Automatic annotation (TrEMBL):
CDD domains: GATase1_CobB (cd03130)
Domain CobQ/CobB/MinD/ParA nucleotide binding, residue spans: 16-193
PROSITE patterns linked: GATASE_COBBQ (PS51274)
Species annotation: Franzmannia qiaohouensis
Protein name (record): Cobyrinate a,c-diamide synthase
InterPro entries referenced in this protein's UniProt entry, alphabetically: CbiA/CobB_synth, Class_I_gatase-like, CobQ/CobB/MinD/ParA_Nub-bd_dom, GATase_3, P-loop_NTPase
Family designation: Belongs to the CobB/CobQ family. CobQ subfamily.
Organismal lineage: Bacteria, Pseudomonadati, Pseudomonadota, Gammaproteobacteria, Oceanospirillales
Length: 460
């Protein structure tokens, strides 16, 4: 249970789930841990390191709680510290899932764990190795003196003998917390940009969460987690001040369904804190826009649903009329593809899109682009990231480019056509609320429609 909270500090048991590389099963194990404790009636708050949309969807379903990103470059130390403080006020356990390998990236998962003094559990796929797994964990533990590894979870363990070999070789100070059997029923389904969206396979995920929780329960992990000493998190002075209501009275239409779901919860929360009313709609299913003053077309998988998007002529006409009115539209990545004239999907079928921006989009196999960048918008710089396996061609000259985190070459193009701002970049709104408010704030009279759909009323 969480330790007592004061005005400036909150304490709660916490673990950072890390790995030597991607593909080791971090999300599978984190989701199973969250479900295990949830089944015991505990409140588990899960965070995901880095710019990730798909893992948080899965972790939110497993834990029954909202999942936010923690990233020292994209969000900043103060933001991360405050989110952990707020979570510790109401959680029985905090789990933070890392990204890539423990020491990969600048800043890395290790940097985040060290900054907040979070004990690390290493998840490792041990297929094809035994004592070497122990050597790798020992190497991770000794690489830096500002992190502490609390144990190993051996994933894809073949047998009891396999487990014995690993456990016997581990340093005394690094226990084997669990050995998870090699079982396809536990693994999470994947596609070209990562894991499959939770909303598409909700029932299947439930079965996998339950199986994972049962496997970890058999190892006695619930009791071990609940007996962890609490970690203290400090409040950040000044964060309790209200965010200026720069979007008060404005209504923002937000596309959200199976084709458009790459949405940070933090972005939605910020827009609401600035006074905006959010109205969600489905470009796949709805035939008209909700009454709104601005539109947000986020990223997602329009290439998987291009035929349905092209067939929804009534909504296309509605969005084209909205664009012609000059009102603001922000289109990110998949939203950018939707705004082009055509989109060629992975089967090389070409479909008509909105045509708000000259150009053509096409998938390009496994080649892609990813990385952290700052969107140099006229309204102000906003930190962001790119992750896509498509290409936009025959587009107009951009008004700006993203600034890469660690490379001098120009980043992703930023286009502006009338009120439309379109880019492959996914913006993290809390980095610069004032710039985001200017981006969405339209001229003219706010929309006065009366009905508002909640998050639970979305499609997809």
């Amino acid at each position: 249970m969480s330790a007592p909270t004061t005005a400036a500090h909150a304490a709660c048991p916490a673990l950072f789930i890390a790995a030597p590389s991607s593909g080791q099963g971090k999300t599978t194990v984190t989701a199973a841990l969250a479900r295990l404790l949830r089944k015991r009636g505990k409140v588990v708050r899960v965070f995901k390191t880095g710019p990730d949309y798909l893992d948080p969807q899965i972790l939110a379903q497993a834990s029954g709680q909202p999942v936010e990103q923690l990233d020292l470059w994209m969000a900043g130390e103060a933001y991360c510290r405050q989110r952990l403080f707020e979570a510790a006020q109401q959680a029985d356990l905090i789990l933070v899932e890392g990204a890539m390998g423990l020491f990969d990236g600048e800043p890395s998962s290790a940097d985040l764990a060290a900054l907040f003094d979070l004990p690390l559990v290493v998840v490792m796929d041990v297929k094809g190795m035994a004592q070497t797994a122990a050597a790798l964990v020992a190497g991770l533990a000794g690489f830096r003196d500002d992190i502490r590894i609390a144990g190993l979870i051996a994933n894809a363990c073949a047998s009891a003998r396999h487990r014995e070999l690993i456990e016997g070789a581990l340093p005394a100070e690094i226990p084997l917390l669990a050995a998870v059997a090699r079982d396809p029923a536990l693994a999470l389904p994947e596609r070209h940009l990562g894991l499959v969206q939770a909303a598409e396979i909700r029932d299947e995920l439930e079965a996998r969460f339950e199986a994972g929780a049962a496997a970890l329960d058999a190892e006695g992990l619930a009791e071990a987690l609940l007996s962890l000493p609490p970690v203290s998190f400090a409040a950040v002075p000044g964060t309790a001040a209200a965010i200026p209501a720069a979007l008060q009275g404005q209504t923002i239409g937000v596309a959200q369904d199976a084709a458009f779901s790459f949405i940070y919860q933090a972005n939605l929360d910020l827009l609401a804190e600035m006074g905006a009313t959010l109205r969600f709609f489905s470009p796949l299913s709805d035939t008209q826009l909700p009454c709104c003053d601005a539109l947000w077309l986020p990223g997602g998988y329009p290439e998987l649903h291009a035929a349905r998007l092209a067939a929804n002529a009534p909504l296309r006409d509605d969005i084209q009329a909205f664009f012609a009115s000059g009102k603001p539209i922000l289109a990110e990545c998949g939203g950018l593809l939707y705004c082009l004239e055509t989109l060629t999907d992975g089967d090389e079928q070409t479909h008509a899109m909105l045509g708000l921006l000259p150009g053509h989009g096409a998938m390009r196999g496994r080649r892609g682009c990813q990385g952290m960048q700052t969107a140099e918008l006229p309204e102000g710089a906003v930190r962001a990231h790119a992750h896509h396996r498509s290409l936009a061609t025959d587009t107009p000259a951009p008004i700006a480019h993203g600034r890469r985190q660690r490379h001098p070459a120009p980043g992703e193009a930023i286009y502006r056509q009338g009120g439309l701002t379109a880019t492959y970049l996914h913006l993290f709104f809390p980095d610069n609320p004032a710039a985001v408010a200017r981006l969405f704030a339209p001229a003219g009279t706010p929309c006065n429609a009366t009905h508002t759909r909640s998050l639970e009323d979305t499609h997809g």
